[in-house]
Amino acid sequence: MMEKISGNQLFVKALIEEGVDTLFAYPGGYAIDIFDELYQMDHNIEIVLPRHEQGLIHEADGYARSTGKVGVCLVTSGPGATNLVTGIATANYDSVPLVCFTGQVNLPLIGNDAFQEVDIVGCTRNIAKFVITVRNREDLGRIIKEAFFIARTGKPGVVLVDLPKDIMAELGSAEYPKEVNIRGYKPQKKVHIGQLHRAMGILEKAERPLFLIGGGTKIAKAHKEMRELAELTGVPVVSTIMGMGVMPTDHPLFIGNAGMHGRYAANMAISECDVLFSIGTRFSDRITGKLGKFAPKAKIIHIDIDTAAISKNVTVDVPVVADAKVALEALVEIAKNHGRIKSADAFYQEIKQWENEHPLIMEDSPKGVNPQTVIETANELMPDAIVVTDVGQHQMWATQFTSMTHPKRQLLTSGGLGTMGFGLPASIGAAMSHRDQKVICYTGDGGVQMNIQEMATAVQQETPIIICIFNNQSLGMVRQFQELFYGKRYASTCLQKRRSCSYTCKGPCDQCPPYTPDFVKLAESYGAKGIRVSKKEEIRPAFESAMAEDKCPVIIEFMTDPDLLVLPMVQGGKALDDMILQG
Questions:
Q1: Does 496 qualify as catalytic in the annotation?
Q2: Is the Cβ–Cβ distance between 303 and 295 less than 8 Å?
Q3: Cα–Cα distance for residue pair 282/92, rounded to 1 Å
Q4: pTM of the model as a whole
Q5: Is 516 exposed, middle or buried (0-12, 13-18, 19+ CB in 10 A)?
Q6: Residue 124 contacts residue 90 (beta carbons within 8 Å)
Q7: Which listed residue (200, 244, 450, 477) is catalytic?
Q8: How many CB atoms lie within 10 A of CB 120?
């Protein structure tokens, strides 16, 4: 007689079969039976208990981005499930492979407004790659197998599987499928060689050729191939922030990041090139500026694994649907037979002249430390650290000044959704999967407080992350917009403001109340270490003290001038060559 086990037991068996080593999980009434089986069954899965489900999914996200593995979440129904929504959108925007399991009320109760019932499939259908409710016990194994396959193949993304409690309690087959065969889902594995020859022919005839690399190139792990292609052709390279690290930042052909806060030379290169060879980017508004004036002189070649991304925002001349690594491997072989593109040298020299005219430098301020100095000191002391950012001014400074030269170096950031609160938990997930490597989290005093409760998770997981808080007493990026475009009307961006303050205060000033919280004391209250830095000479000792910790997270609070701006800046709706260079 065929062995029968409960759905809860099959769930644990499935995780083991899929090679899951870390499960980010928060219990509740409609997931409690699964947790009970995880407690009883023999496995080597580390179960992480965060302090909030949003922190949980960002931790799974950081784990997935830093390892390339599928991140796995388990939460209960209702609020447990809805607390995942922001993290699902964050990961899916950036093509991060996650499988999220949510508990659900018994199948007959669905639609009856039962306690903690939410249609989480309906809530997430438009922000995930695939979502499904298991309605038959015999489908459970197949659905879980397909979930992991869908999450990690093609354009990676988030899959949500909703698990009704009665279905999970039901006995059924103990078999877990070995293979997947999904009708209508056949991820692209090949590349059209004819299109690549056509693309290379156009590139060879260019007078001002340029490569633009995006996050898809990094996801495909095409670092070696991209560098080899650039060196064979001699064509300069610019990057989106999501593509950072594919080319070493000190490589002679790498110009820097382009886009809203890109380098002057990189933005000018896109504006003046006559062939733009783009790989693994979806041409978001942050990289294009005004669409009608994006790369106006260029023929555009676009390689992307997602058919829907090609000519969605920018009409392209040569579309190539393929995985970036597969395409680049083929392009390298083609380039070996063609040699260096001579015209690229002259364009490269012109780009370097733009760089010399407007180098990327931040001036010191008497009101606090210079973020460029902070980041460059960290580069020097920890060249192989994984760098994680939150979202805001500090994020842009990190993308501008972080060196990506060490082979183990990674940069993890929320690019598509721009989620404040991402940095701290994502750095925990990265640190848990890289116990032999330092992890630096650059965050702001606003963003860090959105998931500050995860300091408890960092302490309990003994992750010695270095959390660099740039404290400018404000929501810095919004304040920057208010300064430049709203007549310095700082509405609801001062984080020192109290009820007794004037609503129209232009602060900060000598009458400002004390800042809340005291981040040093807050770190200590969690059992972590806190350091405050107000002067340039304190930066290096602070990092050296933090680096000495091998199990304890450290907050370093860098006091920063609220008037500092992220420059260059392209205002929304403007062309890339129309940059604000001075405040």
A1: no
A2: no
A3: 13
A4: 0.96
A5: exposed
A6: no
A7: 477
A8: 25
From 18, 24, 35, 53, the catalytic residue:
53
Active site includes 449?
no
- Cα maximum dimension of the chain: 81
Per the annotation, the verdict on 549 as an active-site residue is: no
- Chain segment 302-324, per-residue pLDDT in tens: 999 999 999 999 999 999 999 99
Separation between Cα atoms, residue 24 and residue 46, nearest integer Å:
8
CA-wise closest residue to 391 among 316, 334, 444: 444
- Condensed to tens digits (0 to 9), the pLDDT of residues 374-385 reads 999 999 999 999
- Can you tell me whether residue 11 is helix, strand or coil? helix
Choosing from 13, 129, 145, 165, the catalytic residue is 165
Give the whole-angstrom CA distance, residue 50 versus residue 246.
Answer: 32
Q: Is residue 495 helix, strand or coil? A: coil
Report the b/e string of 260-273 with b at 16+ CB within 10 A: bbbbbbbbbbbbbb
| Cis status of the peptide bond prior to 156, with omega within 30 of 0 | no
Quote the CA–CA distance of 78 and 201 in Å, as a whole number: 55
Instruction: Name the DSSP letter for residue 41.
Output: S
- Catalytic residue, candidates 17, 41, 69, 116: 116
Give yes or no for a contact between 55 and 453, defined as CB atoms under 8 angstroms apart: yes
The CA distance from 104 to 134, in Å, is: 10
pLDDT tens figures, 384-393: 999 999 999 9
Measured CA to CA in angstroms, residue 188 lies from 306, 315, 320, 507, 574 at distances of 9, 21, 11, 55, 36
- The three-state secondary structure class of 500 is coil
Residues 23-50 have pLDDT tens digits of 999 999 999 999 999 999 999 999 999 9
Nearest to 564 by CA among 446, 441, 374, 394: 394
| Per-residue H/E/C for 61-121 | HHHHHHHCCCEEEEECCCHHHHCCHHHHHHHHHCCCCEEEEEEECCHHHCCCCCCCCCCHH
Cα 74 to Cα 34: distance, rounded to the nearest angstrom = 9
Q: What CA–CA distance (Å, rounded) separates 581 from 583?
A: 7
Task: Say if CB 255 and CB 271 are below 8 A apart.
Answer: no
Between CA 101 and CA 232 the distance in angstroms is: 46
Segment 61-73, tens digit of pLDDT: 999 999 999 999 9
Other beta carbons less than 10 A from residue 20's beta carbon = 20
Please work out, in degrees rounded to the nearest 5, the angle formed at the alpha carbon of residue 361 by the alpha carbons of 539 and 401. 60
Cα(265)–Cα(246) distance, integer angstroms: 19
- The H-or-E segment that residue 297 falls in is none
Residue 165 is a catalytic residue: yes
Return the axis-axis angle of helices 140-152 and 7-17, rounded to nearest 10°: 30
Characterize the bridge pairing of strands 130-133 and 318-321: unpaired
